[in-house]
């Protein structure tokens, strides 16, 4: 492993089909005023809302709610949440939902006591909070983002067609605790399930496809990727398989809690491309990643042949005998493509609502990251997006 790094992750995890009981352990650590944050109302249909509210009441908490957090949380929704949390004098933000709800809670956390516009401060200037932040807890109902154990928060500005993520530098922004009950994921529609599965897988890819050194993080990543592929095939056939869904939930957390990024430069260009597509289409995040991945990876493959060859052999069991390194590497991406189609992922941005006349704007909204095997220019981004159509 090359370079120097630090690693700290203070989030406490409670995992399993009885994990919600541990909310009783966490709530006494915080003040009386809790803001309950959730999305479109599915938690009211499946009983999770009632179970959480009962525990809050049993712990004598004074509860305010922020409902209707959308899959791509907007800056206007952020402003609304900040006002609610301020008015309630919140002591704890409790996010119940998927990654977008957890992301949103962290964005509210860093904004409540900040006098500046959070969009300008955190998403355009990428500054760090210099104000007191609020603690966040998560009850996870959908897996994919890993937001339950990291300091990232993605917010969309529909007016400027920008979808931007800020991974905050201070570990205090990470959730203080997260409750992971795999049973809560069993009611997800198939489309959302497989989108989350690809989000998990691509998070690992974004960190894996960088660097040339012998790095322990890459060995961990290969194991995680194999686990995701194995569990995904079982869950795709039987979404009610608890073991497969529990393995996917655990893999999602470890895919993006910063562990496998240690000693790595990391890439993140698939996310930058996908997020820009999402800003124009409001499409499901995991599907935007799926739609742009293969055109991007096939473009950068010549610049990172050895890692793509390793990916083919160690993740997809491609036999390298009698083949050139490039042939093996390409076979790996073909195997990945077959798996993606097997799951039923969206394979092009046209299906997500993108059109050719949007390409220039999507390219302009794509942040260029320097950590992968090729630093792209605008023309290359446009060509990759055209291939993604």
What labels would you give this structure?
six-stranded parallel β-sheet, alpha/beta, 2 domains, two-stranded antiparallel ribbon, 15 helices, single chain
Describe this structure in words.
The chain is of the alpha/beta class and 389 residues long. The chain folds into two domains: 12-185, Rossmann fold (3-Layer(aba) Sandwich); 190-388, Dehydroquinate synthase-like, alpha domain (Up-down Bundle), CATH 1.20.1090.10. 47% of the residues lie in helices and 11% in strands. The protein has 15 helices and eight strands. It has helices spanning 23-26, 42-45, 48-58, 75-88, 99-109, 118-124, 190-208, 216-237, 242-255, 269-281, 285-300, 305-316, 325-343, 359-364, 378-388, and strands at residues 12-15, 33-37, 62-66, 92-97, 136-140, 152-157, 162-167, 177-180. Strands 1-8-5-4-2-3 form a six-stranded parallel beta sheet, with helices on both faces. It has a two-stranded antiparallel ribbon with strand order 6-7. β6 (152-157) and β7 (162-167) form a beta hairpin. α7 packs parallel to α11 (285-300). The longest helix has 22 residues, at 216-237. The protein is globular. The protein starts with 11 loop residues before the first strand and ends with a helix. The model has no long low-confidence stretch (mean pLDDT 97).
């Amino acid at each position: 492993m090359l370079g120097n790094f630090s690693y700290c992750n203070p989030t406490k995890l409670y995992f399993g089909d009885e994990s919600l009981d541990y909310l009783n352990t966490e709530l006494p650590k915080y003040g009386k005023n809790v803001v309950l944050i959730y999305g479109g109302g599915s938690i009211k249909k499946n009983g999770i809302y009632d179970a959480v509210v009962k525990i809050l009441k049993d712990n004598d908490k004074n509860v305010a709610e922020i409902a209707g957090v959308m899959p791509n949380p907007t800056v206007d929704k952020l402003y609304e949440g900040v006002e609610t949390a301020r008015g309630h004098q919140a002591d704890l933000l409790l996010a119940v939902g998927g990654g977008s709800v957890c992301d949103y809670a962290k964005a509210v956390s860093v904004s409540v006591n900040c006098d500046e516009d959070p969009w300008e401060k955190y998403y355009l200037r990428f500054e760090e909070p210099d104000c007191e932040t609020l603690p966040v807890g998560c009850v996870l109902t959908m897996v994919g983002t890993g937001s339950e154990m990291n300091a990232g928060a993605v917010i969309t500005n529909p007016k400027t067609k920008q979808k931007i993520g800020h991974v905050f530098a201070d570990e205090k922004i990470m959730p203080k605790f997260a409750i992971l009950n795999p049973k809560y994921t069993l009611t997800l529609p198939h489309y959302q399930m497989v989108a989350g599965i690809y989000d998990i897988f691509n998070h690992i890819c974004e960190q894996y496809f960088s660097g040339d050194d012998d790095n322990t993080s890459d060995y961990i990543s290969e194991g995680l990727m194999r686990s995701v592929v194995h569990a995904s095939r079982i869950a795709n056939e039987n979404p009610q398989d608890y073991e497969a869904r529990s393995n996917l939930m655990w893999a999602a957390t470890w895919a993006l809690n910063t562990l496998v990024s240690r000693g790595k430069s990391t890439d993140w260009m698939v996310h930058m491309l996908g997020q820009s597509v999402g800003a124009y289409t409001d499409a499901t995040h995991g599907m935007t990643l799926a739609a742009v991945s293969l055109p991007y990876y096939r473009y950068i493959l010549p610049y990172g042949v050895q890692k793509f060859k390793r990916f083919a052999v160690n993740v997809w069991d491609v036999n390298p005998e009698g083949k050139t390194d490039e042939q093996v590497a390409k076979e790996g991406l073909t195997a990945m493509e077959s798996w993606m189609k097997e799951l039923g992922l969206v394979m092009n941005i046209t299906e997500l609502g993108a059109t050719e006349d949007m390409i220039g704007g999507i390219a302009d909204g794509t942040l260029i990251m320097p950590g992968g095997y090729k630093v792209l220019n605008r023309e290359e981004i446009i060509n990759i997006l055209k291939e993604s159509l």
